[in-house]
Design brief:
alpha/beta, Rossmann fold, 3-stranded antiparallel β-sheet, 8 helices, binds S-adenosylmethionine
Length: 268
């Protein structure tokens, strides 16, 4: 199988993805509803990772067969074990690279992805064309991707927080990804033939202790040390931000305004 994507694939990241799914579960489930997955019989979860969204779709829509496509060995083997453990009879793993899917003859009436396309920027037109081809006429595609990291800020303000946000942006850019993908994704979907049914922006104001505040804290613990190591963030910003997080526990008005997630419903 091809090389892992740049966020890294390992047990600790698998556990973070699980917590991340819990944090975004309400918005994700609403997106399934907006997409009309209740009308679908065969849904492709693209870049499913360990399968947290796959299992959610399989449980919410038992009428549908859900195919979980991911190229990461660890995530596919976790997913296969969970399918057996949880006794799902409507989940099929697909250990494949999205970029090598062109020859497959299977067609779906629904497709979903969350936090995948931002890693595939150099091949985005090819990727979206492949997804379009894999859908039956009338089939729905429901991506959920970052709109932009530029909205990500905090109150009270902190220049160390700004340094952390910039590190995230540059982490994507230096690895040929782009966390601002949501700003141009609708346009690109239309260019490959999709019609857009709806676009929604979710996330935003999250007071201290809110599930989305905790999500960003969690991402900091897991990624900021790597940013320091790779020269994307100064050690001093890391240390000061650590103190900032701790201090906000005693501030009833502290909040972050998260990166905004774009939820698009497009159809063929
Ligand atoms: C940030 S994770 C998101 C996982 C899952 N969608 C979720 O929301 O929990 C991105 C996933 O995309 C997968 N991925 C990246 N590039 C891929 C490709 N070319 N083909 C298949 N999977 C890919 C990675 O292996 C990883 O599991």
């Amino acid at each position: 199988m091809s090389e892992d994507y740049f966020l890294g694939v390992h047990e600790k990241e698998l556990e973070r993805l699980k917590r991340q799914h819990e944090a975004w579960r309400p918005e994700t489930i609403q997106h399934f509803k907006d997409a009309g997955f209740d009308q679908c019989m065969h849904i492709l979860d693209i870049g499913s990772g360990p399968g947290f969204t796959t299992f959610e779709i399989a449980e919410q829509y038992p009428q549908a067969q859900v195919t979980a496509l991911d190229k990461a060995d660890l995530y596919q083997s976790y997913l296969k074990d969970e399918v057996v453990k949880r006794g799902y009879n409507n989940v099929s793993p697909l250990h494949a690279d999205l970029l090598n899917l062109a020859d497959s003859k299977t067609r779906y009436d629904g497709a979903f992805c969350r936090w995948v396309l931002a890693f595939l920027i150099p091949d985005l037109t090819e990727v979206l064309t492949t997804i379009y081809d894999k859908l039956e006429p009338g089939g729905v595609f429901a991506p959920m991707e970052y709109l932009s990291l530029d909205t990500f800020t905090c109150s009270p303000p902190s220049k160390h927080f700004d340094a952390y946000r910039n590190a995230w942006k540059n982490f994507y850019l230096t690895n040929h990804g782009d966390a601002n993908i949501g700003t141009y994704l609708p346009q690109m979907l239309v260019e490959v033939g999709f019609k857009i049914r709806s676009i929604k922006s979710v996330g935003g104001h999250s007071p201290y202790g809110h599930r989305l505040y905790t999500w960003w804290r969690d991402a900091y613990d897991n990624f900021a040390p790597t940013f320091v190591r790779d020269g994307l963030m100064a050690q001093q910003d890391f240390d000061e931000l650590q103190k900032y997080w701790t201090a906000q526990a005693n501030n009833p008005h502290a909040y972050v305004y998260t990166t905004i997630i774009s939820q698009i419903v497009a159809y063929k």
